[in-house]
Amino acid sequence: MTNLEKSKCEKLCKEAINSIEEANELYKKAEKVDKELHEATMKLRRADQKQGYAEGINQVLAIIGYKSESMKQLSKLL
């Protein structure tokens, strides 16, 4: 894998980490919303989208054999 490819993979991995962290935060916020079911539903849907995005990136990077500390962190978060 070239340095450019590694750089792009690392960027994608970090983007996935940011996405899953945001999803986790949205899940937490949605759990706290009791009175506004609509808002909670929207937050859960957004969190599901972000989690799916991060999982997809993780799968692609794993398939092409990319390994790094960020990948380990991403795996733990998922």
Question: What would you say this structure looks like, in words?
Answer:
It is a single chain. The chain is an all-alpha fold and 78 residues long. 85% of the residues lie in helices and 0% in strands. It has helices at residues 3-32, 37-63, 69-77. Helix 1 (3-32) packs antiparallel against helix 2 (37-63) and helix 1 (3-32) packs parallel to helix 3. The longest helix is centred in the first third of the chain and has 30 residues, at 3-32. The two termini are 25 Å apart. The relative contact order is 0.21.
CA-CA gap between termini:
25 Å
> How do the SSEs run, as a string of H and E?
HHH
Please identify the oligomeric state. single chain
Count of helices? 3
Helix content: over 70%
The coarse overall form would be: elongated
Major sheet summary line? none
- Beta-strand share of residues: under 5%
Number of extended strands:
0
Strand pairing plus helix content: what structural class? mainly alpha
- Kindly report the average pLDDT value: 88
Computed over alpha carbons, the radius of gyration is 15 Å
Which parts are unreliable, with pLDDT below 50 for 5 consecutive residues or more? none
Main features:
single chain, 85% helix, elongated, 78 residues, mainly alpha, 3 helices
